[in-house]
Amino acid sequence: MTAFRSWLFALLFYAFSGVVALAILPLLLAPRRWLMAVIAAWSRGLVVLLRLVCAIRVEFRGLEHLPRGGALIAAKHQCMFDTMAPLGVFADACYVLRRELLRIPVYGWYARKTRMIAVDRAGGASALKRMVAEAAQRLGEGRQVVIFPEGTRTPEPGAPYKPGVAGLYRDLGVPCIPLATNSGAHWPAHGFTRRPGLIVYEFLPPIAPGMPRAAFMRELRDRLEGASAALAAL
Asked: Could you give the C-alpha distances from 36 to 146, 169, 186, 223, in angstroms and in order?
């Protein structure tokens, strides 16, 4: 039954997402916030679809730690769903993503229109400087800047954190809000299996600005990995 539900969900997911992506193409000419509102609705629709087809519920905890205005979010990344589900609760999210993703037809168009922050991973210090400058601009617009410290989907704990999150924390001078999850237990990083249960996204108390780099990275890692491990045991 799990295999059947998983394949059915995959079929409906791609059909639903494809229809929405094509239907809203005219919004590429509309104000950005209109497109963000539709994307948030699409995200909430996926949460409902996941519950109905795969018996997977999605719960958001710690929303009291999430400001409606500018914020820096460091999110655990276990599966593709982590880039989609939180869009339904963010007021105006801006993801830090790989520049290569902008080349994907349709997806790249929407990423550019919504002014996501595209990073050239081979760009070194200049790429980091550009990322910080763009993030500061997005914060000034009242947006939530979301970065995945691991840089990619990592189903197993222990993956190293990339330096980008430390650069944003240091130069933006704002609190960093960790976002833990157990999503990988129900939506694996690879494959189509969707296991019934509860996916939790938990916003943790902010890490105050001003910590030394090493201390911040230690604190962020301890909080994110510890909270995600606790959620995995649910």
From this structure: 15, 25, 27, 30
Pairing of strands 56-61, 197-203: parallel
Distance between start and end Cα atoms, the chain: 22
CA 49 and chain centroid, separation: 19
Instruction: Report pLDDT digits (tens) over 46-73.
Output: 999 999 999 999 999 999 999 889 999 9
Tell me which residue has tokens 């996926």: 46
* Cα 21–chain centre separation: 19
> Can you tell me the distance from the alpha carbon of 227 to that of 203, in angstroms, rounded to the nearest whole number?
10
Give tens-digit pLDDT for 97-120: 999 999 999 999 999 999 999 998
